[in-house]
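name: query_chain
kind: protein
chains: 1
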Amino acid sequence: MKHILWLLYAIVVIAVCYFAFFRNDSTDTSDQWELVWEEQFSHSDKIDTTVWSVIPRGTAPWNKYMSAADTCYGIGNEGLVLRGLHAEGLVNDTVPYITGGLYSKGKKAFHNGRLEIRAKLQGAKGAWPAIWLLPDPGFGETGRENCKWPYGGEIDIMERLNHDSIAYQTVHSYYTLNLKQDTIPPHFATGSINPETFNVYAVEMYPDSLCFFINDTHTFTYPRIETPLEGQFPFNQPFYLLIDMQLGGDWVGEIDPEEVPVEMIVDRVSFYQKKQ
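structure:
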């Protein structure tokens, strides 16, 4: 049995190396990709509600401060501004902080292509800005049950904590979370960012893999593998995009009230598909 397990592990490692080296040796979108949709917030004067909706408040650590208050949102010269703010004095609310977030749920989905987001992230103790994807039951042939978290999967294109000079890129699923299979294959990586300016975060979505990039540097590839275990690769389906300014939670730690307000600015969202 030990020999079989080691053989399976070797096969997975070889597959990961293959995807990382051969599939991702070039990230020049002009050579490989055709732009099929783009939102340039820096060229807009308002949020397009045919594509974006305000993320409602929930009970999870990431959405417990979400708010529809106008003060959490803005369009400036550099793009879309999403803010984390003290609630007191701005809104009559039951929470100490309010945060802004948008998603494309039920309006715009992404599948089989390269999704790029150019954003600038202001640092603060307790700040947790995120750009990520969840499966959208309103698109494609995927049933609502297959989209339930974590069975439908989660693709984290960018998460940044506090004042870090790195960003996290991660996949979650029933396989990685419930079955604790988060090393075969590895399910996350980090990449360097310039905290003072804009950075480009990207994921390439293929039927058999997800390939992640920061500023066109490949960080890691998560491949589909042969396994008898359930739910290893639920990612070959349409996903909607979430972009949100988050505050607090067990992962990022306590919020320093002296470092709030805090902002994230999104210049553009671009979606490419392979040239024919």
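note: Residues 2-23 form the longest helix (22 residues).
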